[in-house]
Amino acid sequence: MTNNRESYFQRQSLLPEIGLDGLTKLEAASVLVVGAGGLGSPVIEQLSSAGIGRVGIVDGDTVQYSNLHRQSLYTESEIGELKVLCASRRILARNPHVRIEVYPQMLHQENAIKMIESYDIVVDCSDNYSTRYLINDACVKLNKPFVYGAIYRLQGQVALFNIPGGATYRCLTPEFPDSLAGTDCVNSGVISLVPSIIANLQALETVKWIVGLPVIEDLLLVDLRSFDIQKLKLPARSTDYTFLDHGLNHPYYRRDCSTTAISNQEAMKLVKEGKIQQMIDVREREEVDSDTIDNIPLSEISSNPSSVKLEGNTLLFCISGVRSKEASSILSRNTNAMIYSLDEAMTNELKELWKNRK
């Protein structure tokens, strides 16, 4: 270890639980962070600040105005830029002792094994079940541990899965949920303090695992309204690995991990940059004007999603963002394109921009 690095991490090395030996372990370690949003931003910051030698960041999304209040790595001037590039730039400006590797794409079954296999541990900072099950299954297949984190309003959960002899995520939740209603920040709301707290706990467990300190063996439940913290004993590790019989080939892996909600301002920027190839109004036909943009009602999408032919990255909209969010979740199951959901009513300015695009 160089003197510069020792000086940079001097205060941390004073901890008897870390010391120079711990710093050496951290420098040799590699961590893959999946998701660079509300959880991912503070996780990336804390892991790099703790001395992790190599940090990979997986996220195919761009910075949006509605992200800024809870995603500390980004600024308003970076709206529309890829999150992974902005995050890398910000971290390296503060800490030259970390190697940042960026993957400007969503995690999916075709790339999960290749990405995860070269890292020691994965931190799940996604906001959907599809990605979480994919991470779990890939980690089980590769025998890699992963740190789980999730938030819902003023509550959060943290666990370390797939350590030797320990439970996997499927031991806790064997089946993919039938309903995804209210499970993400768009539907349920979030205050910036909650993902920051949960993310710091995820980063701490990652560091503890790397340096060899005792790690959490339960599911940590944090209720930040009352600051009630509980430990739920995880079930014994299951011996049923039939979910791997056909490799990483489950259809629900794409169910809700290729969608994102954006504002009119963000949509206009994407249209100007040529990053949206199709726009669809998902309201019922009797609700729309005769001169509206392409109209495929949510009811038709729900009943026969395979009949909807997408032409590339697509923006869906309705009157409030609720139906377009549901439609985006359905359509994302069978496409590699990005599906954007307008989280508010479309403005005339955006409509005219789309109609007059070149």
The spatial strand order of the largest sheet comes to 3-2-1-4-5-6-7-8
The beta-strand count equals 12
Strand content: 15-25%
Terminal Cα span: 55 Å
The CATH topology label of the largest domain is Rossmann fold
Structural class by sheet pairing and helices: alpha/beta
| Count, helices | 14
Name of the level-1 CATH class of the largest domain: Alpha Beta
How would you characterize this protein structure?
Helix 4 (40-49) runs parallel beside helix 10 (193-211). The longest helix is centred in the middle third of the chain and has 19 residues, at 193-211. The protein is an alpha/beta fold and 358 residues long. Helix content is 34%, strand content 17%. It starts with a helix and ends with a helix. The chain folds into 2 domains: 3-244, Rossmann fold (3-Layer(aba) Sandwich), CATH 3.40.50.720; 258-355, Rhodanese-like domain (Oxidized Rhodanese, domain 1), CATH 3.40.250.10.
Label this structure with key terms.
Oxidized Rhodanese, domain 1; single chain; four-stranded parallel sheet; 2 domains; 12 strands; alpha/beta; Rossmann fold
Question: Topology, please?
Answer:
Blueprint (H helix, E strand, L loop, with lengths): L2 H6 L1 H4 L5 H10 L1 E5 L5 H10 L4 E5 L24 H12 L4 E5 L8 H5 L4 E4 L4 H14 L3 E7 L2 E7 L7 H4 L12 H4 L4 H19 L6 E6 L4 E6 L25 E4 L1 H9 L5 E4 L16 H6 L10 E4 L4 H10 L7 E4 L5 H8 L3
Parallel strand pairs: 1-2, 1-4, 2-3, 4-5, 9-12, 10-11, 11-12
Antiparallel strand pairs: 5-6, 6-7, 7-8
Compact overview of the structure:
By secondary structure, the chain is an alpha/beta fold. It has helices at 3-8, 10-13, 19-28, 40-49, 83-94, 112-116, 129-142, 169-172, 185-188, 193-211, 264-272, 298-303, 322-331, 348-355, and strands at 30-34, 54-58, 99-103, 121-124, 146-152, 155-161, 218-223, 228-233, 259-262, 278-281, 314-317, 339-342. It has an 8-stranded mixed sheet with strand order 3-2-1-4-5-6-7-8, sandwiched between helices. A 4-stranded parallel sheet has the order 9-12-11-10.
